[in-house]
């Protein structure tokens, strides 16, 4: 990049503000962000080697710390189990310190190295050892970054896009530091005169930098697409799966199983409901047209590369295939231009009309520089973000999305075996994450204190309510009930910002009761992580352990532990889950595996049963915020429904409605007005020493929020139109 001298002041300001904002996120937790190289220099002394033992945090799903022997040489940190293993080349990992974001925490003697693909958490045992490692890491890091910046251009760009971005960042920072040094030597009067004369040029420079960033992101995307094409055309297509008469290949099964999978599971296929059948079965030629691609890696199979016109593609009736047994209906989407804002759907031969968003997502870029520039020193979690970063749904509606697959609870109610009931409860808990797979690009609207939402679904047999019961800290509570079950939870989050990614750690317990059996289930949610917060294509993953406890009046009956696996480098085992159902004595009864974004299976390959499969996405869901069909319908406001809802219902919120209609400017204006009203209400409460009392929820003995049971009664008599509610918007 060539930076003009007259624009240097602006460039320096932007980079400085960016560094301050990132650093402020760490200082809130007493983390210190180690700065990068600040200018090229040819006299950096070659650092000496540093080696020794340190503690390294285990990767998911394991917990705790273990000892590792580390060697730091020329800015490259390698580690092995022991020093002898390191000498023999039996390495456990390699980290380029120069291309990593480094942060230290003196209080707990911790060192974090963020390579974008992984975050390495290290810890020293003593204060002296910590200071020694930090000093050497700083020295090696500067040496490595200077080495990268001084390399010829043809050697700087590697095949790894992540390394490329980091290298380019170092080059930009080095160039900017050099320009800053030049500017500091100029007379102050000249600088002030240039600042006044070149204000328009600086704004143009900011715009040019944004265009450069967009170009880099586009190049990175092209690189990723080329990698995908390379893998696609270099790998043989799996068009057929044979389960009989085929010799197993040398490559073994994909390891989906946990440690407990080695135990015999004799009761896996017992007590299955009529709707579930083994995956391996004889099917007609009509149903063989679609084989789930994700299932092809679970089974040993011969690989065929056949053209579409080859007669060998015709299959005989004797072949065995994998069939998706969880799909209870055939859904076909078809366009009907006269039905806007609705579209026609064929469900089991019946034509119905479903709501469709009136406008697709507007492709308006957001200048992140301007957001960071105007919020120096503030807590980024409390900063009002522009409406372009939102999706036209609310956090309360997001909670409702978790009951999209409520039919799993209805199936559990009709299952008499308690351990098999636990299988369907686990599938329901996992299915709550499916809607997030295509939604990392936007965030839901934050609910206003006192805001409510209801969802009445006679077709699914449940009614749902939610309310924002607290603003600081933000807490959303919900309650869902049917004749078969009662489901409730209150959700609050703790955010951890790592510079390139943000971890969202949910707090609170999810509750479920099945009155017919006297069952009660409880579980906590796992950690979610959104990657590429500031630049690049955002993507989300969930990892951690979900422990589901099942109890009755007679005591504990069964237990289920589900592990959401953390993605390894290269996207391996992405979105995978595995789990086991055990009895009260710890004996494994059922084994589960699958992907939280696709499906869940019971048993061991190749004889497994599909318990749950995610619903098909609408054809053009990428243009409509990545919404599932269930999500599309959540904000529908029919004329007959308006007089029945309280004025605090999310559907009446104007900024969210305007964003749904594609009016970005109007949505931003309304959003600012609503936030001002909320601050004014809060000020009035504080001046009068008053606190907010939720309308439809109350605190339980365990400090959780539960329904007070008044919503549906008040809705019926006297009706919300005859009651007073605070003016939220």
UniProtKB/TrEMBL annotation:
Cited InterPro entries: OSBP_sf (IPR037239), Oxysterol-bd (IPR000648), Oxysterol-bd_CS (IPR018494), PH-like_dom_sf (IPR011993), PH_8 (IPR041680), PH_domain (IPR001849)
Domain of life: Eukaryota
Pfam family, one: Oxysterol_BP
Cross-referenced SMART domains: PH (SM00233)
Location of the PH domain: 47-142
Start and end residues of each stretch annotated as Disordered: 244-291
The keyword Endoplasmic reticulum is annotated on this UniProt entry: yes
Membrane topology: Peripheral membrane protein
Biased composition (Basic residues): 248-260
Biological processes annotated in GO: bile acid biosynthetic process
Known function: Phosphoinositide-binding protein which associates with both cell and endoplasmic reticulum (ER) membranes. Can bind to the ER membrane protein VAPA and recruit VAPA to plasma membrane sites, thus linking these intracellular compartments. The ORP3-VAPA complex stimulates RRAS signaling which in turn attenuates integrin beta-1 (ITGB1) activation at the cell surface. With VAPA, may regulate ER morphology. Has a role in regulation of the actin cytoskeleton, cell polarity and cell adhesion. Binds to phosphoinositides with preference for PI(3,4)P2 and PI(3,4,5)P3.
Family annotation (PANTHER family): OXYSTEROL-BINDING PROTEIN, OXYSTEROL-BINDING PROTEIN-RELATED
Protein name: Oxysterol-binding protein
């Amino acid at each position: 990049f060539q930076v003009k001298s007259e624009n240097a002041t602006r460039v320096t300001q932007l980079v400085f503000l960016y560094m301050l904002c990132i650093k402020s996120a760490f200082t809130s937790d007493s983390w210190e962000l180690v700065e990068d190289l600040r200018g090229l220099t040819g006299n950096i002394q070659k650092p000496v080697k540093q080696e020794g033992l340190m503690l390294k945090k285990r990767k998911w799903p394991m917990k705790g710390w273990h000892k590792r022997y580390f060697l730091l040489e020329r800015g490259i940190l390698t580690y092995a189990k022991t020093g002898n293993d390191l000498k023999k080349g039996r390495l456990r990992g390699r980290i380029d310190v120069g291309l990593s974001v480094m942060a230290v925490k003196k209080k707990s003697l911790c060192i974090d190295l963020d390579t974008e693909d992984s975050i390495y958490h290290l810890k020293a045992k003593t204060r002296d050892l910590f200071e020694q490692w930090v000093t050497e890491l700083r020295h090696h890091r500067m040496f490595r970054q200077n080495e990268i910046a001084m390399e010829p251009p043809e050697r700087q760009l590697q095949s790894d896009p992540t390394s490329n971005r980091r290298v380019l960042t170092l080059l930009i920072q080095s160039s900017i530091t050099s320009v800053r040094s030049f500017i500091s030597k100029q007379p102050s009067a000249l600088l002030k005169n240039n600042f006044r004369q070149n204000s328009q040029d600086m704004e143009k420079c900011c715009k040019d930098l944004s265009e450069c960033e967009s170009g880099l992101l586009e190049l990175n995307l092209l690189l990723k697409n080329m990698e995908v094409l390379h893998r696609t055309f270099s790998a043989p297509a799996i068009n057929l799966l044979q389960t009989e008469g085929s010799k197993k290949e040398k490559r073994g099964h994909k390891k989906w199983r946990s440690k407990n999978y080695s135990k015999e599971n004799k009761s896996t296929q017992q007590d299955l409901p009529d709707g579930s059948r083994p995956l391996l079965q004889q099917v007609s030629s009509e149903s063989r047209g679609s084989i789930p691609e994700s299932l092809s890696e679970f089974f040993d199979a011969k690989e065929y590369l056949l053209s579409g016109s080859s007669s060998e593609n015709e299959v005989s009736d004797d072949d065995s295939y994998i069939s998706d047994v969880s799909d209870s209906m055939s859904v076909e989407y078809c366009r009907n231009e006269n039905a806007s804002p609705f579209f026609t759907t064929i469900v089991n031969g019946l034509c119905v009309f479903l709501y469709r968003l009136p406008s697709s997502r507007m492709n308006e870029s957001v200048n992140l520089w301007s957001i960071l520039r105007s919020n120096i020193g503030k807590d980024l979690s409390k900063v009002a973000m522009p409406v372009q970063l939102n999706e036209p749904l609310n956090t309360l509606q997001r909670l409702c999305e978790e009951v999209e697959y409520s039919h799993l609870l209805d199936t559990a109610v009709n299952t008499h075996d308690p351990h098999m009931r636990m299988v369907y409860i686990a599938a329901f808990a996992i299915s709550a994450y499916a809607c997030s797979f295509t939604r990392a690009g936007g965030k839901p609207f934050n609910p206003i204190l006192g805001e409510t939402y209801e969802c009445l679904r006679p077709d699914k047999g449940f009614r749902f309510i939610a309310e924002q019961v607290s603003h600081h800290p933000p807490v959303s509570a919900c309650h869902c009930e049917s004749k078969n079950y009662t489901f409730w939870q209150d959700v609050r989050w703790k955010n951890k910002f790592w510079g390139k990614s943000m971890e969202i750690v949910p707090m609170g317990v999810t509750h479920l009761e099945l009155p017919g059996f006297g069952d009660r289930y409880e579980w906590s949610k796992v950690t979610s992580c959104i990657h590429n917060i500031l630049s690049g294509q955002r993507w989300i993953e969930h990892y951690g352990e979900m422990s589901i406890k099942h109890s009755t009046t007679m005591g504990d009956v069964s237990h289920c532990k589900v592990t959401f696996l953390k993605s390894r480098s290269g996207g391996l085992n992405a979105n995978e889950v595995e789990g086991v159902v055990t009895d009260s004595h710890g004996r494994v009864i059922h084994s589960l595996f699958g992907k939280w974004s696709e499906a869940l299976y019971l048993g061991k390959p190749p004889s497994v049963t599909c318990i749950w499969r995610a619903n098909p996405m609408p054809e053009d869901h990428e243009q409509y915020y990545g919404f599932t069909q269930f999500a599309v319908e959540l904000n529908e406001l029919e004329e007959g429904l308006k007089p029945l809802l309280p004025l605090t219902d999310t559907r009446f919120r104007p900024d969210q409605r305007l964003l749904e209609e594609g009016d970005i400017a109007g949505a931003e204006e309304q959003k600012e007005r609503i936030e001002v009203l909320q601050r004014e209400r809060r000020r009035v409460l504080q001046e009068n020493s008053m606190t907010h009392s939720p309308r439809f929820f109350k605190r339980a003995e365990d400090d959780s929020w539960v329904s007070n049971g008044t919503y549906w009664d008040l809705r019926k008599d006297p009706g919300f139109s005859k009651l007073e509610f605070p003016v939220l918007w």
